[in-house]
Amino acid sequence: MSLPTTLTALSPLDGRYAAKLAALRPLLSEYGLMHRRVQVEVEWFIALSDAGFDEFKPLSEAGRGLLRSLVLRFSEADAQAIKDIERTTNHDVKAVEYWLKSRFAEQAELKAAGEFVHFACTSEDINNTSHALMLKAAREEVLLPTIDRITAKLGTLARDFAAVPMLSRTHGQTASPTTVGKELANVVARLVHARERVAAVKLLAKMNGAVGNYNAHLSAYPSHDWEGFSRNVVEGALGLTFNPYTIQIEPHDYMAELFDALTRVNTILIDFSRDVWGYISLGYFKQRTKEGEVGSSTMPHKVNPIDFENAEGNFGLSSALLTHLSQKLPISRWQRDLTDSTVLRNMGVAVGYAQLGYDSLLRGLDKLQLNEAALAADLDDAWEVLAEPIQTVMRRFGLPEPYEQLKKFTRGQPMTRALMQGFIADLDLPQSEKDRLLAMTPGSYTGLAAELARRVG
């Protein structure tokens, strides 16, 4: 059987949803890992040429240009060539080294210095820096911009609907009113904080040899400042943060921190997706329909909130993987075992499901239409929520047992405007306070909600 790749893919990220993750694929795939390995090997090689060693003179501008063009123009064909070499070496990092040397064949300057490719490095010097570069690109180019789009969209909706009153529910029961904008502003504020945590994680890397002590480096050049040299490559050439204390592997604590921060974003957006799902169910929001789409295979009237359901499901998958990564990666038997390498190959899957959730959520938000009539009707059926302000004013003026009076009056019977205003009229309060309470409606009892919503973000 021969079918298109998208139909035979085991993961829906590379099948059904492949087009939605096109921006992540070159960054977090095996191709992306190979690309970053080439970048690290090239920058280490160039730095060695500038280290002042008699055996390796500074490279010419032409030589440097050729090397960096290998990174800039790295292609799928190059990745496949490395993969072909790996079939012989059975070692993925060594295959990159041999591929680089093969590209030196017609350049005498580079060919002469070929043995300085991967000089004094262990595979993890290349891998840990490459993984950090992959995460850096994914965070800067895809994840943060998409989180920012969601935050901006919610911020706009919060301000647009800042003054639209809405009945709150606590424990599923009618509660003090708010506004639609304030409910959205709450999510914006949480996202802004969570986004700061994602952006603030320093991406660490090391290039200190087989067990983290520069053993091989010092055996070749005992008087060279290898720690300073490595720091310059990691921070100056690669734009990462240098970790001076490691075993054979960089211990991945920063990865755990980053993945936990992304899980927090997922959790906030799961919470929001469920709330919007509920608001759609209550009729607070309608969903724009698209020509040709069906909502149910048998019930023509339905427009299901599938985007928010898809978002919730994908965020859950992402968080499950991210949590496993954050709990597993910082644990290594002695200097290292291979379990970190095994699970790191799923880094793109974990992030991919988060990105897929973001995409679903944005599509869902673009379909929402506020149903102010439903919001107003719901409020008008909930005059009991004014028991809170009435009993609070009664407390201010020292009336006896205000809470108990309202409890007895409101529980067990439907409240109407007439009933509530009749209760107010009989209270021993200054007339000005009675007038203020009599003018109050469920829709006007929203406190600072509108002001808070307008200034969020």
From TrEMBL:
It is an enzyme of class 4 (lyase). Residues 332-446 form the Adenylosuccinate lyase PurB C-terminal domain. Catalyzes two reactions in de novo purine nucleotide biosynthesis. Catalyzes the breakdown of 5-aminoimidazole- (N-succinylocarboxamide) ribotide (SAICAR or 2-[5-amino-1-(5-phospho-beta-D-ribosyl)imidazole-4-carboxamido]succinate) to 5-aminoimidazole-4-carboxamide ribotide (AICAR or 5-amino-1-(5-phospho-beta-D-ribosyl)imidazole-4-carboxamide) and fumarate, and of adenylosuccinate (ADS or N(6)-(1,2-dicarboxyethyl)-AMP) to adenosine monophosphate (AMP) and fumarate. Pathway: Purine metabolism; IMP biosynthesis via de novo pathway; 5-amino-1-(5-phospho-D-ribosyl)imidazole-4-carboxamide from 5-amino-1-(5-phospho-D-ribosyl)imidazole-4-carboxylate: step 2/2; Purine metabolism; AMP biosynthesis via de novo pathway; AMP from IMP: step 2/2. GO terms for biological process: 'de novo' AMP biosynthetic process; 'de novo' IMP biosynthetic process. Residues 15-313 form the Fumarate lyase N-terminal domain. GO terms for molecular function: (S)-2-(5-amino-1-(5-phospho-D-ribosyl)imidazole-4-carboxamido) succinate lyase (fumarate-forming) activity; N6-(1,2-dicarboxyethyl)AMP AMP-lyase (fumarate-forming) activity. InterPro entries: Fumarase/histidase_N (IPR024083), Fumarate_lyase_CS (IPR020557), Fumarate_lyase_fam (IPR000362), Fumarate_lyase_N (IPR022761), L-Aspartase-like (IPR008948), Pur_lyase (IPR004769), PurB_bact (IPR047136), PurB_C (IPR013539). Belongs to the lyase 1 family. Adenylosuccinate lyase subfamily. This is Adenylosuccinate lyase. The lineage of its organism: Bacteria, Pseudomonadati, Pseudomonadota, Betaproteobacteria, Burkholderiales. It catalyses: (2S)-2-[5-amino-1-(5-phospho-beta-D-ribosyl)imidazole-4-carboxamido]succinate = 5-amino-1-(5-phospho-beta-D-ribosyl)imidazole-4-carboxamide + fumarate; N(6)-(1,2-dicarboxyethyl)-AMP = fumarate + AMP. Its EC number is 4.3.2.2. The keyword Transferase does not apply. SUPFAM superfamilies: L-aspartase-like. Keywords: Lyase, Purine biosynthesis.
